[in-house]
Recover the amino acids of this structure.
């Protein structure tokens, strides 16, 4: 691996580490996954992900009102710091669609900058948070 490639990979790793670190902030008034437009194209220099249609699936969920319906019909969280109920539900669903077979696979998506960009999300819930969210249904 040459020095330029090594520097680019290191910079990408630093960006994703900063992006997913747990930073308590203000309560959000809209879900974290907020992509509203995605374009597919071919270029010489491109970034790609294996679940390439995930952005289109998220746009479909938004256009059909699924995101809104989940947030309106499911009230498990007292505050949205930073995730809404729809972020948790869709995070689990999208991970399954992307080939995840257990909750730990969410970490792979969480560390994929292009995946996060396709969803329009700064970050997504980690596997531990996803497990905790799922446990609330069994109470």
């Amino acid at each position: 691996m040459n020095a330029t490639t090594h520097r680019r990979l290191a910079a990408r790793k630093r960006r994703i580490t900063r992006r997913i670190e747990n930073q308590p902030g203000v309560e959000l008034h809209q879900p974290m996954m907020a992509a509203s437009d995605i374009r597919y194209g071919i270029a010489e220099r491109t970034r790609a992900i294996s679940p390439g249609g995930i952005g289109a699936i998220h746009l479909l969920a938004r256009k059909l009102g699924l995101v809104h319906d989940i947030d309106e019909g499911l009230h498990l969280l007292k505050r949205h710091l930073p995730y809404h109920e729809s972020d948790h539900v869709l995070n689990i669903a999208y991970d399954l669609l992307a080939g995840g077979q257990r909750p730990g696979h969410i970490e792979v998506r969480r560390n994929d900058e292009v995946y996060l960009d396709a969803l329009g999300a700064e970050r997504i819930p980690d596997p531990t948070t996803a497990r905790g969210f799922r446990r609330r249904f069994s109470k």
Summary: Residues 80 and 103 are 21 Å apart (CA to CA). The chain is about 50% helix and 0% strand.
